Amino acid sequence: MTSFGFGRELVDHAEGAIIHTRDGRQILDFTGGVGVLNHGHNHPRILAARQRFQERRRMEVHKTYFSPYLAALSHNLAAVLPGDLNMSFLPNSGAEAVEGAVKLAYKYHGGRRNTIMHADISFHGKLLGSGSLTGGAQNHFKFPGISGTVAYPYGDLDALRAQVAAARDDRGGCDVYAILVEPFSASTMRHCDEEFLRGLRELCTAEDIVLIFDEIYTGWGKTGTLFYFMRYPGLLPDVVTTSKSFGGGKSSISAYVAREPVFRKAYDSLNDALLQSTSTTYYGFGEETATAIEAINIAVDEDFPARALQIERVLAPGLDRLAKEH
Ligand SMILES: Cc1ncc(COP(=O)(O)O)c(C=O)c1O
To answer: Which ligand 1 atom sits closest to the C-alpha of 95?
Structure first.
């Protein structure tokens, strides 16, 4: 922090896009809180939802009782996402959502396939599993990770097709259980074009590979559609991950949402239900989920995608000029 002079300002409070420092200055916060602050700091409806939850003494821990908040949030996610993306799991961090999605894909194939592909420039988190799926540029020290990872060049469909064709099991069948991609890569500001994404979908369908879109950073309107992939009608991943602004700037919550047949094939039996994903103590806690419900309501009511396009029209020319100049 000190090398760049950050961390010297002491913040008193923050509202909307403004940070108020203790020495009375106001700072226009362009950071977006690393993707967490689509709603701005302390959105009044988010604060009110949390206060309501507390005042009514709602139940936080739901392990032995049905949680209406968890159910409502899952229902609402299914309502705003296209197709049969209907089954949600709600842990606390993006990395856990990614790892949950990867476990789902592995289990979907009954442990018979052993290769998982991720982009060379990817960022999927920093736990041991998600870290091993994060591209080399972000990862200059090798920690142990999951096995069978293969990096493909981001956006290069021909290369990816060749790598999938080369990944065969002993009997010549496809060995790839999942392909991960950030349709828009926030850490590099690159994106996949429509031809790549549709071709990838076709390839995954043909080879029965679970296609995972990581939209942890890009969700909830940032790119002009609710999720980046939704700009292309009919394009559907098997699993999508989200976090960051999903919690309305207040709650540490993430999700993976899976297509129902994929989820059911993996976990829908008494024997397998508890293998489910990254189930941790705090997943789907009450106030976290109630906050996320309101965060989605606001993103829809205030039409965040349209607002992002509006802001783009204002800022893009100046940002492009800055990028060229520097
Ligand atoms: C695309 C993407 N995936 C995964 C993650 C990991 O999320 P978390 O930091 O909550 O573990 C991030 C975090 O920046 C991200 O941008």
So the answer is: 11
Distance CA 22, CA 321 (A): 34
Q: How distant, in Å, are the alpha carbons of 217, 276, 300, 304, 316 from that of 310? A: 20, 41, 16, 10, 10
Question: Which tens digit of pLDDT belongs to each residue from 267-302?
Answer: 998 888 888 655 788 999 999 999 999 999 999 999
Question: Distance from the CA of 65 to the center of ligand 1, in angstroms?
Answer: 30
pLDDT for 64 equals: 81
State in Å: Cα 275 to ligand 1 middle.
Answer: 23
Contact 152, 163 (CB under 8 A): yes
Predicted confidence at residue 142, as pLDDT, reads 87
Regions of the chain where pLDDT drops below 70: 1, 138, 276-278
Which residue ranges have their beta carbon within 6 Å of ligand 1? 93-95, 98, 123-125, 182, 186, 214, 216-217, 243
Query: Sign (positive/negative) of CA torsion 24, 29, 33, 36?
Result: positive
Tell which phi-psi region holds residue 257, choosing left (phi > 0), alpha (psi between -120 and 50) or beta: beta
Domains of the chain: 66-301 (3.40.640.10)
> In this predicted structure, what is the pLDDT of residue 278?
54
Roughly what angle, to the nearest 10 degrees, separates helices 94-108 and 260-267?
Answer: 70
pLDDT at 136: 76
Eight-state DSSP code of residue 175:
-
